[in-house]
Design a protein that fits this description.
single chain, alpha+beta, four-stranded antiparallel sheet, 3 helices
Length: 97
């Protein structure tokens, strides 16, 4: 499964880099395949392990803020692995033709 998510503290002002970095640290330390861009972090794995990472990332942000916003999108396809890179590779292949 692929999960793209964004977690943001509410009421922390405009500069949320430090709490977001705390969430990304949780993701990277999980050992799951992941990618972070300016809007979302995407992780790949089984349901329970992915959702545990999302929960812990939210908790890391909540440590510095009483309220957290979570946006999550999931692609649930049992048996599919390496979807994070395979999907992009397919699009790049089509664009190169």
């Amino acid at each position: 499964m692929l999960v793209a998510f964004s977690v943001t503290p509410i009421g922390a002002g405009e500069d949320v880099a430090a709490p977001v970095a705390a969430a990304v640290k949780v993701v990277r330390e999980s050992g799951l395949p992941n990618r972070t861009d300016s809007m979302f972090t995407t992780i790949e794995g089984e349901w329970d392990e992915v959702m545990d990472v999302v929960k812990r990332a939210c908790e890391a942000v909540q440590d510095g803020s009483g309220r957290v916003s979570l946006v999550l999108k999931a692609d649930i396809r049992p048996g599919v692995v390496n979807a994070m890179t395979a999907k992009v590779e397919k699009v790049e292949q089509l664009l190169a033709e």
